[in-house]
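Example with several molecule types.
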Amino acid sequence: MSLLGLMDIAKTALATSRQVLTVTGHNIANVNTPGFSRQEAVLIENRPQNAGVGQVGTGVDLAQIRRSIDTFLESQVTTSYAQLGRQDLLSTTLLQIQPLLSDTDEHGIGPALNQFFDAVQDVATNPSDPTARSALLSRGAILGEKLSQTRVQLSANRSSLDREVSQVLGEINRLSDEIADLNVKIVEAEIRGQNANDFRDQRQVKLNELSERVSIQVLENASGQVTVFVGRGQVLVDGHLTRDLVGVPSAANDGLTEIAYDTGGSTLPLITPFISSGRLKGLIESRDQTIPDLVASLDTLSASLVTEFNRTHRTGYGLDGSTGNDFFTALAVTARDNPDNAGTASIGSGTITAHSLLTQHRYEIRFSSASTYTIIDTDTGTNIRGNYTGAAIATPTVDTPIAIVSGSNDTLAVTVDGTASGVITLTGAASPGLAYTSGETLAQEIQTQINADATLSVAGRSVTVTFDRTTSRFVVTSNSTASTSVVNVTGGTAAATLGLSAGTSTAASGTFASPQTFNLDGISVTLTGATATDDVFTVDTFTNAAANLSVSITDHNKIAASASLSGVPSNNGNALALSALKNTALASLGNTTVTEFFSVTASTFGTTAQKAQNDFQAQEFLHQQLLAFRAQTSGVSLDEELVKMIEFQQAFEAASRMIIVADELMQTLLSIKR
Amino acid sequence: MRVSEFQIYAAFLNNLQRLRQENLETQNQVSTGKRVLQPSDDPISFGQIVSGKASLAVTEQRLRNIEFATSRIDTADNALSSVTNILFRLKELAVQLRSDTNGASERATAATEVKELFNELQQLANTRLNGQPVFTGTSTHGRATGAPVVTPVTLVDGVNDTLVVEVDGVASGTLDLTSGTETLTGTQLATRLQSRINTDATLSAAGKSVTIAFTGTRLDVISNSFGADSTVLVTSGSALADLGFDGGSRTTGSNPFSLIAEARAAFGNTGGAIIAQGTVRDPLAVTLDDYVIQFTSATSFSVHNISQQVGVSPDSNNAGGAVVGDHGVDDPSQVRLDAYEIRPERFYTVTAANNALRFDPGSGPPVTVTVTAGRYSGDQLAAAVQSAMNAASGGDTYTVTLDGATGEFSITNDAGNAGPLDLMFDDPATTIEDLLGFPPTLETVQVAATETGGDSTLTSGAVLKHHVLNTTVNSAMFTITSSNNTVFVNGSPVVLTAGSYTGAELATEIQTRLGTGYSAAYSTAAGPPARLFTITNSTGGAVTINHSNAGSTVSELLGFDAVDSVVPNLGTDVSDFDAGTVQYLSGDPIDFGGLRVVLADDSGPPRHGDVFAVSLASQVVLSNQTYASGGPIDFKGLRVAIRNGAGVPASGDLFRVLVQSQYQGDGGIQAIEVQDNQTTQTNLPGNEVFDGPTIDLLSAVKRLTTALRGDYGGGIGQAIDDVDQALEQVAGARGQVGAFANRLESTSGSLKLTQELLIDVISQREDADLVTLVSELVQQETAIQAASQAGSRILSTSLLNFLR
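Resulting structure tokens for the full complex:
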């Protein structure tokens, strides 16, 4: 052991102290750097030298500078970012939408509904007052505006969410690239046995940023590179390689962006349903679920209101004696081909054949083979009821009754769910016959007589017969929802009189022959062309009902307040009936009233928004906890660093002192020689 | 545990931020005063607030409904209160004027006041609120109201099955009512007519339609539009007369209660002119009087006011003790401008118990003769006894006479007979002596001598009757009412239309009702009988006229005995005794030609042969006008139009124009919503207040003016009863209105409670409790201060501070 050795030892001490101080300085410098993990200088004794008396130490060495991290915690934080991203977006979006439903005082949909029905009552109280009538028209228009404004804003929200999807996809791809870059840098750095601490920290930050946008799985391989998976095992980053997520406009989803995985090939697999968390999930959820649900609720509300209000309105008489007028613009049928259909068949724009049968449900005509169809009511999940929809006839009235003459035009023959009836005889009279003065009484008579048929009742078949005042036709509907449900009018002397000889029979399931017209719960659609297995065609009457809600009549004299022509102007029977609609539970609204339905919609939305908010707060709290845990391990404590600084400052000073001592020793020795 | 800077700062920051956020929310709540601003603030409460506000809106709306309804009900109640006062005044007037101490002039003066009261009543009945009549049900429709028709009506294709109407000024095409031969009841007629009118192409294209009501005797063609433009006119067609539209009235839908001018052609008109539905042109000029238009030639006519006094004067030669009681126009729809005589006369009923006379003629043995059972006038009975005696006397002749003035029968043993005549009134075989007024003793009458009995009207079997002679047309008058309108033929009833007829008119009516195969004629003869009907059977077979049927109530008036007549084909059934006689009862009204006269015994009954001359002192309104077919005839605010139909009018043809009140509203109910699916009535249709259910009070008041003007005590008496009924009716209506008001008030009370409750509930859910909030705010501020101070303390403890 030489004095120089002592100097060497001191040198190592000086060097390591300085290095440790550098690390400490780095730590202090990065005390506020996001994602920074506290670094630790790991000191080891230098290899000792063998001396006669034993091993003598040779000083200290800096083995490595390592990050102080808990990898488990890091991955938890990464996952938490994904949750946070989703919850943050959901709660923000919902809170943005919420004001559309929230105004309880004057300007919202709820108050507009109330004021509309109040205006109806004002007309009922003063049926001949032009002021009350005009007010009703404007209240109806305001209600329409509110609903369509809300619809427009929801659509705008949806579009902006959709734009954000593309934005987020861009960010994801950028982050993927950065992570791949860092992967390369880390390998380069670590291949020499060094810890690429700062690169790793940076990569972790990027991973967290990525996770906040889309839920990912991260695997680190032996070389220190990470592989990032998204969706259901799709590789986003693998070493230095990246794959992009791309936005694909979806025909099936209103042209909105679907998320596809860029394999480089021509068909890009869609992974939208497999994204489980992150902002992207939040965006998709709000865009494809929350907003459409709300839109559907508003559409259903509007469609039911329009149907029921118009149906009652049509039966009344205006001040000008007019009758049969719609108050709101009538509903339109929305019929769509599924874009994924393999066949070339297309469904024509449908018409409403029986307003009284409309359910505001969505229907699907599904093909289980190229020519076998089944019609499903997707709201109930069952088959539709088979029916026979008659041709339009002249509406029977007191002045123009339909006469059933015994032995002349009083029989019918029908087939219900595959069972043929005997001869069904309607109650008539000798010429000039029994006069039926309303379609409803005649419908009741037809229904009673069909259901009284022995063959049909033995087989357990029964039907409901409806007369639709709007379109002036009879519809005979089977009461069965089995796939065999079908009604056909096969003959009888009364068939022609009742418009039941030139009608259309629609079975719940059967063989398709192009072109074919289907009648489903009051809607008539015609399908033309070649169909293929698994083709689906959707039909409904409520799509865009809220957006299209508007008052059809412009002349307040046409508001049908009177229940009879001769009761004009002061009869208010029909206005009372219209007003009573407010308290009528509608089957198409799940047996709630219009106001109840809106209140349920708003409070359901509120619950969702509240839950999103609470979830976000909880997640944020959890996230803060995780960050705190992480900070326990990886965070910089200034106190600690200051202590360490002083500690190594002292060590440095001591080492310096040692050099001085060694130097003095050296001088002493040299002076001896002198 | 390591504590890093991040934790210290993060903890401090998070705490401070959470506190700030809470503070912000609280501040928001304080500044808006609301606890729930967004659905997410409290979804359950938000739902309840939305529902609560909806209920509140409904409740407040219902309160508004009730407020409006209350004003309607109050208006009705005020009007009815005034109506009651007017009715009391009317009753007072009527009671005062009923007394005979008031003469014609006092009554005429009162008529003017009553007319004013009528106007007031009409105004009250037409009370409006916000431009809408309060007592109209739901609507006021113009209409054409037909004259009464006899149903069922047989419509025959090509004969009487077409009609042309004008609805709201739009003329229909020619409506074809049947394509065969159909006999329709009133209701069926209404349905048929309505269906034909409402399916007429021209009318449908113009959006015009009608509702047709059959109101027991008349068809009402009611336009479905409302207001002043709502009118119906039935203009022409072959079914016009059979449906009652050769006449009738028409109104617009301007007011629920308006005056109508009902035009009617008199039954006996012989010309071919038709009168259209009459209208009120100027309601202010209408006097409530009724009129008759009389044609004096085919080209000229006069208009007479018939709401005048009826003059009755006993003949100066009258020997009876009867005096004239009350007299007036009782039924303006039957009035004609003729002069009449009421003529009392005797009548005898011979039965098997009082038909035998035993006498000993001078030339042979005693014989017993009988007179055929049946009804006889005095002359007839005298003749019957005479002919029976002469047939059995073996050559002697006797003369039996009745002294009309004294009612005494005389039997004369004619000069040149063989010997004295023994009238064996004491013989048990003789039963007729009482009927003829002879005592039960043997009377011997020498040749050329006369035996006279007592006053036969005082004996059983003889009654005092009367007939009314229309001296203008020289025919008896026949008044058919529901109690004497049926004759049975072959066991089936044939019903004559009620009304007042001359003999010829009644013969026409009988012929019409008997139908094809019969003819009937009225004639006068030297008699007996002097006035007789002849019914001729040409049906092709024998028929039986069931005079013996108890339901054959008109047989006696027509002069038939209660014995069935079997009439062979082409045979006749002729009156057995004088037609047109009616039993005289002191104080009973005698009705004829729409007039009513009451005769009463004073110093004794009237005598056979007495005469009471009766005539209506009608006033000429328009005299000697020139007739132009179809031209309007205007007088006293009324307008009618007469046009040539099958021919021109004939001299003597009458057209009556009767003024009445008519309800143009309906029975519609106006209800308001007071609870879910629960409504309450807020109006009383006029037909339940003024037009019914028991009495049409405006028409009753109109009758009172007519009675007052005609100085007709019976009419005034009737009016007192009517006003009593009207008072009861209006009181009932006021009770109903009061009940509506009460119901509204109590509903309003409970709604107000609900309103308060809802406001409370909403406030509880929605409104912030300021006290709690402010204290929370203070707490939060303290917490923020505490957190800040704690932060500054912790931060100040950093080691750095000690290393300086």
